[in-house]
């Protein structure tokens, strides 16, 4: 099986390609050419619509669309909170910094406020001593850059 093309490629690019289209067994969904089991956003939306409009029981609808009952409720809550766009799966991987948390960054910023000449390598060493966390100096540098807006074009290109 090669790389998806056409609509499947677009769905994959936007993280909306259903990883299990074969799990969608809903008869009405399968019978309508407009409905696409490869489009996970459409599958989720139609599952919620089937329960709320067609009054299909949650367990039955969830099974017919390839989900469990608990996932149905999570999908319905996401739809209620953010509309159809909330049905697009989030990016995989960590959702925030694992090492350079707000607490660590506040510590780094306090150090820099006391001594602006501290280099990222020195700050990384201080983080190791204080928190027992090993961070790369470049990670410190990038995290500091994200936390402050450059005031001038020259400052935007300045690196330690």
What does this 3D model show about the protein?
The chain has helices at residues 6-13, 27-31, 40-52, 58-64, 69-82, 102-114, 120-131, 137-147, 153-157. The chain has 9 helices and no strands. Helix 6 crosses helix 7 (120-131) and helix 7 (120-131) packs across helix 8. The longest helix is centred in the middle third of the chain and has 14 residues, at 69-82. It folds into 2 domains: 6-87, no CATH class; 102-157, no CATH class. It is mainly α and 160 residues long. The relative contact order is 0.08. The model has no long low-confidence stretch (mean pLDDT 87).
* Total number of domains: 2
Q: What is the mean predicted local confidence, pLDDT?
A: 87
What gyration radius follows from the Cα positions, in whole Å?
Answer: 24 Å
**Which regions are unreliable across 5 or more consecutive residues at pLDDT < 50?**
none
Major sheet size, sense and barrel closure: none
**Looking at the chains present, what oligomeric state does this protein adopt?**
single chain
Separation of the first and last Cα atoms: 48 Å
Shape from CA axes? Answer: elongated
Helix/strand order: HHHHHHHHH
Summarize this structure briefly.
The protein has 160 residues and is an all-alpha fold. 55% of the residues lie in helices and 0% in strands. The protein has two domains: 6-87, no CATH class; 102-157, no CATH class.
Q: Helix and strand layout, with pairings?
A:
Layout: H1 6-13, H2 27-31, H3 40-52, H4 58-64, H5 69-82, H6 102-114, H7 120-131, H8 137-147, H9 153-157
């Amino acid at each position: 099986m090669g790389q998806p093309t056409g609509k499947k490629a677009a769905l994959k690019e936007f993280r909306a390609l259903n990883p299990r289209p074969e799990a969608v067994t809903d008869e009405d969904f399968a019978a309508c050419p407009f409905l696409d089991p490869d489009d996970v956003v459409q599958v989720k939306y139609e599952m919620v619509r089937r329960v709320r409009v067609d009054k299909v029981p949650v367990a039955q609808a969830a099974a017919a669309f390839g989900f469990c009952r608990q996932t149905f409720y999570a999908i319905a809550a996401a739809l209620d909170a953010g509309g159809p766009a909330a049905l697009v799966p989030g990016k995989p991987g960590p959702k925030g910094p694992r090492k350079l948390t707000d607490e660590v960054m506040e510590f780094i910023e306090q150090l820099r406020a006391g001594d602006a000449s501290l280099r990222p390598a020195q700050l990384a060493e201080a983080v190791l001593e204080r928190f027992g966390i090993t961070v790369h100096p470049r990670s410190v540098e990038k995290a500091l850059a994200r936390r402050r807006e450059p005031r001038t074009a020259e400052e935007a290109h300045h690196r330690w």
